[in-house]
């Protein structure tokens, strides 16, 4: 076993000396398709849920506060499914491999989205959202684990953000297709002049087409994932050294063609090899060691409060704006402009994300969230200012996310990395569900007494408050991981 451990350490050293992305960039696209579908699924409900409510939930008006009340359980159960998938399914990748589980999770998400397209009542809508959430929760955890294990030490945040960039495309598709397919035409910027949701089949079924598109995206992602190689770090952790060396040799060859010569080998860190590891063993690794347990507690608290802000805005901004007096098409347009900020945040982290410690980005992020929310609240009828506010808002509440994905994956050892990520991200999502329900109830109560600028300010400050708490936790208690070798951070 000692000889095997030395050999494993040498392979890891060879992997860690590669300073660039050394797999085919096609694989980033393949992983990105999963993110694209995932965020399409998260954001497609933002605009389309109003039509869904009018069509099969028998809501009388697009501005009815009842829509916000119906949205809360739909998002909450989707997040409960997410938590179930993250905590119960994604840890299986520590046992059977990253690639195998990525196939399974994408199949589940696609089936859930197809079910969503076919439902005819609120109960089945909730069940479909739960099934989709199960697949999404597991998929996000495994994708981020995989990226963290194959990216260079000086670029884990960068390449996590590279994949995250696809999520901005998915979010944009969810928002803009929702406007196109589920809202009536209206002169821009009050809506889309070419919108198709005002008559014919799409007037009552545009939202079904949205979920059908989601199922198609999942199918494409599933087919592409057959080409993914297994994570060499996972192979090493299971003692499959020949398979791991084969993958690493391919990475070295690709990197050598680009760089000419590879850097010298770093010191050898002998990894922990366990050929058979159960879920209980992974839990013991994390919960039984003080270092990992402390990291788990900090990351869960950070995600819990941060997701309260993220999901209120990601799933419900259109509904919130409608409740505050905006016509639904106009509210949807304002929310859709936010995707520009979403794209800018991914590009920012790709460019400079690894230059700062992970927790510093949470502080930068929350400043933009507060600024964007206040801009929208004070803009009122000034639509260009509302658009600017939406861009700033989306930039703010998303900026910390890809960095924190990398941070969570880095914080646990290879033999339990997916399990650790699943616990932090999965339990953290409980905050997202609670946030949607609590804020929806709060807005419904306040709106009943009349809408005003001061009310809008209060609403957006309340939403941002949760992210402020998340930031304080991350900055005060967070650990350092940037630009260090994985097996040095988490042996």
From TrEMBL:
<feature type="transmembrane region" description="Helical">
    <location>
        <begin position="427"/>
        <end position="447"/>
    </location>
</feature>
<feature type="transmembrane region" description="Helical">
    <location>
        <begin position="333"/>
        <end position="352"/>
    </location>
</feature>
<dbReference type="InterPro" id="IPR036259">
    <property type="entry name" value="MFS_trans_sf"/>
</dbReference>
<feature type="transmembrane region" description="Helical">
    <location>
        <begin position="101"/>
        <end position="119"/>
    </location>
</feature>
<feature type="transmembrane region" description="Helical">
    <location>
        <begin position="296"/>
        <end position="321"/>
    </location>
</feature>
<dbReference type="InterPro" id="IPR020846">
    <property type="entry name" value="MFS_dom"/>
</dbReference>
<feature type="transmembrane region" description="Helical">
    <location>
        <begin position="209"/>
        <end position="228"/>
    </location>
</feature>
<keyword id="KW-1133">Transmembrane helix</keyword>
<dbReference type="Pfam" id="PF00083">
    <property type="entry name" value="Sugar_tr"/>
</dbReference>
<protein>
    <submittedName>
        <fullName>Arabinose efflux permease family protein</fullName>
    </submittedName>
</protein>
<feature type="transmembrane region" description="Helical">
    <location>
        <begin position="159"/>
        <end position="181"/>
    </location>
</feature>
<feature type="transmembrane region" description="Helical">
    <location>
        <begin position="67"/>
        <end position="89"/>
    </location>
</feature>
<keyword id="KW-0812">Transmembrane</keyword>
<feature type="transmembrane region" description="Helical">
    <location>
        <begin position="361"/>
        <end position="379"/>
    </location>
</feature>
<dbReference type="GO" id="GO:0016020">
    <property type="term" value="C:membrane"/>
</dbReference>
<keyword id="KW-0813">Transport</keyword>
<dbReference type="InterPro" id="IPR005828">
    <property type="entry name" value="MFS_sugar_transport-like"/>
</dbReference>
<feature type="transmembrane region" description="Helical">
    <location>
        <begin position="125"/>
        <end position="147"/>
    </location>
</feature>
<dbReference type="InterPro" id="IPR005829">
    <property type="entry name" value="Sugar_transporter_CS"/>
</dbReference>
<feature type="transmembrane region" description="Helical">
    <location>
        <begin position="385"/>
        <end position="407"/>
    </location>
</feature>
<dbReference type="GO" id="GO:0022857">
    <property type="term" value="F:transmembrane transporter activity"/>
</dbReference>
<keyword id="KW-0472">Membrane</keyword>
<feature type="domain" description="Major facilitator superfamily (MFS) profile">
    <location>
        <begin position="27"/>
        <end position="482"/>
    </location>
</feature>
<feature type="transmembrane region" description="Helical">
    <location>
        <begin position="20"/>
        <end position="40"/>
    </location>
</feature>
<feature type="transmembrane region" description="Helical">
    <location>
        <begin position="459"/>
        <end position="477"/>
    </location>
</feature>
